[in-house]
Write a structure and sequence with these properties.
Helix content: 40-55%
Number of domains: 2
Order of helices and strands: HHEEEHEHEHEHEEHHHHEHEHEEH
Distance between the termini: 53 Å
CATH superfamily of the largest domain: Glycoside hydrolase/deacetylase
CATH topology of the largest domain: TIM Barrel
CATH class of the largest domain: Alpha Beta
Strand content: 5-15%
Structural class: alpha/beta
Largest sheet: 6 strands, parallel
Shape: globular
CATH architecture of the largest domain: Alpha-Beta Barrel
Radius of gyration: 20 Å
Length: 362
């Protein structure tokens, strides 16, 4: 991938580091399992699993978002394994209750899906309904309205089919050669990081300009990839399904001024409540990693009246109020890691540091 300065090298380093970390994580978790840590060194009382897309494996060499995908088969295996390991699979209301009470006899797992992807209802729901287990879907309301912009999917599509790419970055005309899969991965990391750093209006301008240059219908792509209100109504009718909020437009809240972040959080909730005629009590920070939200947003979530707010920061849940309900950790499952042994180690909490109390009296 050709570019100016050291941007390509930094992107390549991040991409290589991510691959290395996945391999090292798999190895360490396997060793921990074989050493018995997943069985004897449990920490906390439960965990929340974070998923996004659920679909069959794709056979293409360029899949920059593969880590956010699992197959229906693996989801089925996960639910069966959780039952076999004697975990209680619970909804978010019960997660909150167990997080503030004394430890129960059995550990729990909450299943959550971010973004309201279309394959949640086409591929995930048949599996979960068959097992009759509860789960939560966090909805950014612009997407079922057909107004959301899934820039990450558009970027994937453009890079996948092009061998050269040109765009403006900081008023500078940039050109990239991306003939190999490796070069495409490098560019995807570089551009997605750049887009994530922009304020929402600038991000929208940038991705729409890129889509116009390379004939991608961003609106159609986004509508096709996400559930509409009819799909969500079918899920909401199931008592095992909790509908949560994930703002309106799914921005990284850290890129917004406080007033704009507040509007995103409260309007997303208001639209969801109007659509489903019920209270929306649970929230997910868009993207959820450490760079996407701040402590100020935790306070906003609480002031907005949400019972809980979940992140994508890995961790385990402690009982008796030791885990802040508006900064709940989740195990952001890497779909490239098709290992139930690894999942069992992570769910045990053995690999995570102890949670520090969030109340002064603990």
């Amino acid at each position: 991938m050709s570019t100016k300065g050291n941007d390509a090298e930094r992107a390549k380093g991040r991409d290589t580091l991510a691959s290395d970390n996945t391999w090292l994580t798999s190895l360490k978790l396997g060793l921990a399992y074989l050493g018995g840590r997943a069985i004897w060194q449990k920490r906390g009382v439960g965990a929340i699993l974070r998923f996004e897309r659920v679909r069959a494996r794709q056979g293409t060499p360029f899949q920059p978002l593969q880590s956010s995908e699992i197959t229906p088969k693996f989801l089925d295996q996960t639910v069966r394994a959780l039952k076999h390991w004697k975990y209680d699979i619970v909804g978010m209301d019960e997660v909150c209750r167990r997080a503030v009470t004394m430890p129960a006899h059995r550990r729990f797992v909450g299943l959550t899906f971010d973004g309201a992807s279309k394959d949640v209802i086409t591929s995930a729901y048949p599996v979960l309904a068959r097992h009759r287990v509860p789960f939560t879907v966090y909805v950014p309301t612009a997407f079922p309205d057909g107004l959301g912009e899934a820039w990450w999917l558009a970027l994937e599509q453009i890079i996948s089919r092009e061998s050269r790419l040109s765009l403006m970055i900081a008023r500078d005309d940039r050109h990239f050669t991306i003939r190999t899969a490796s070069e495409k991965y490098e560019l995807y990391v570089f551009l997605s990081n750049w887009l994530r750093s922009l304020e929402p209006p600038d991000l929208s301008v940038a991705i729409n300009d890129l889509c116009k240059r390379y004939s991608v219908d961003l609106a159609a792509l986004s509508r096709e990839a996400f559930m509409d209100w009819e799909d969500l109504a079918k899920l909401a009718a199931d008592p095992n399904v909790t509908i949560g909020s994930a703002t309106v437009n799914y921005p990284a809240l850290a890129n917004l001024k406080d007033a704009a972040a507040w509007r995103e959080m409260t309007m997303g909730r208001a639209v969801g409540e109007a659509a489903f005629h019920r209270e929306i009590r649970h929230f997910a920070y868009p993207f959820g990693d450490r760079d996407s939200w701040r402590r100020a947003h935790l306070v906003m979530a609480e002031e907005a009246g949400f019972d809980s707010a979940v992140s994508a920061i890995s961790g385990i849940i402690e009982a008796a109020g030791r885990t802040n309900l508006h900064a709940l950790p989740r195990i952001d499952w890497d779909g490239r890691l098709q290992s139930l042994r690894a999942m069992r180690v992570l769910l045990s909490g053995a690999t995570f540091a102890a949670v520090k109390p969030t109340r002064s009296d603990l």
